[in-house]
Amino acid sequence: MIYFDNAATTLHKPPEVAAAMQWAAGNLGSPGRGGHDYAKNAGEAAFALRELASKYFNVGSSERVVITSNATHALNIAINALAQKGKRAVISGYEHNSVYRPVMNSGMSVTIAQGQLFDAEDTLEAFDAALKRDTALCVVNHVSNVFGYIQPIEQIAELCAARGIPLVIDASQSAGAIALDFSALGAEYVAMPGHKGLYGPQGTGLLLCKDARGMSPFLYGGSGSNSKQVDMPDYTPDRLEAGTHNMPGIAGLYEGLRFVIGLESGSPGRIAKHENNLLNTAADGLSKISGVTLYRADDSAVQSGVLSFNIAGKDCEAAAEELNCLGAAVRAGMHCAPMAHKSAGTYKTGTIRASFGVYNTAEEAKRFAELAAMLVNS
């Protein structure tokens, strides 16, 4: 089976991930929940992940790396911390429901910075117009999960900084594949899942924090520290990590992140280049098929690892089922991002989405186009 659904989860992981999870299940207790070796080892494992992530993403301190259950959890923490009822939030036209729903239900009015697909200049103009000085919050994804559109995040961050507007970045589709310097961006929070470009297990994520002191926690409960006080501890990560940690997930994510760092070491951009080569190979093959509409950027610098397309006369979800029967796993429909489809004009039809990872090959990309041709001609 050709697995081209890496934007949902990188199903194929380094073997070290599963091995670490299996070991953790019998050897790691809960951090801060005892003075015995199992609890101490768990605390050291969680610290090791924070330290590795802090260095890789240039956070500045491991204490500002919060471990979450996924990117949605991380985004809800960040949005809950910064939302001000009655104030205004600005988001892009390509947000996933993990941003759209919490912002829309935050009590804030919402302005959408509506830019054309794959047009960074138009996107910047939209944000420039939308980011007025009365804006209390800006939330934007780095890369669209539907189209792979790389939004001009550095320039958006500069606009927010110049106007004193706190920025939250959803790095769900970029973390691990595209360089991300947290300190240079100056965002308040950057959220990411562990199970996509970081090659860790499902049920893991990270939230990088600029300064979470004084914020309202999203969850209240045991933290393993300051147990006598009513409020959560006033320092990170404890303030934002209520409840028992997923230690097998943490151990697995540590190995996934190590794997990514190893690939990028000495060859920055290696993963992004590989994914884009696969995208171009698949797109070149699909473009030769009559009736296929591709959502492909003219400039490869603004598209990363995700290719959406449609087949004339074929329902996208039915087409994905047929591709599955032919031996290719893709996703089709709204991709939990109806806003992106509205922005690109595919709201009524949805799209078929192929998304690529480090374990995919050029031969698979070529074969995928052949399978799509078989589907069209059947």
Note the main attributes of this structure.
Aspartate Aminotransferase, domain 1, 2 domains, seven-stranded mixed sheet, four-stranded antiparallel sheet, 378 residues, Aspartate Aminotransferase, domain 2, 12 helices
Describe this structure in words.
This protein has 378 residues and is of the alpha/beta class. It folds into 2 domains: 2-10 and 268-377, Alpha-Beta Complex (Aspartate Aminotransferase, domain 1), CATH 3.90.1150; 15-264, Aspartate Aminotransferase, domain 2, CATH 3.40.640.10. 39% of the residues lie in helices and 15% in strands. It is built from 12 helices and 13 strands. β5 (135-141), α6 (153-163) and β6 (167-170) form a beta-alpha-beta unit. α2 runs parallel beside α8 (247-264) and α9 (270-286) packs parallel to α12 (362-377). The longest helix is centred in the first third of the chain and has 20 residues, at 37-56. The chain starts with a strand and ends with a helix.
Q: What series of H and E elements makes up the topology? A: EHHEHEHEHEHEHEEHHEEHEEHEH
CATH topology of the largest domain: Aspartate Aminotransferase, domain 2
The name of the CATH architecture of the largest domain is 3-Layer(aba) Sandwich
Q: Nearest-angstrom radius of gyration? A: 21 Å
Helix fraction, binned, reads 25-40%
Strand order of the largest sheet: 2-8-7-6-5-3-4
Could you say which structural class the secondary elements and strand pairing correspond to? Answer: alpha/beta
CATH class of the largest domain: Alpha Beta
The percent range for strand residues is 15-25%
What is the number of E strands? 13
How widely separated are the two ends?
A: 20 Å
Shape field: globular
- Provide the domain count: 2
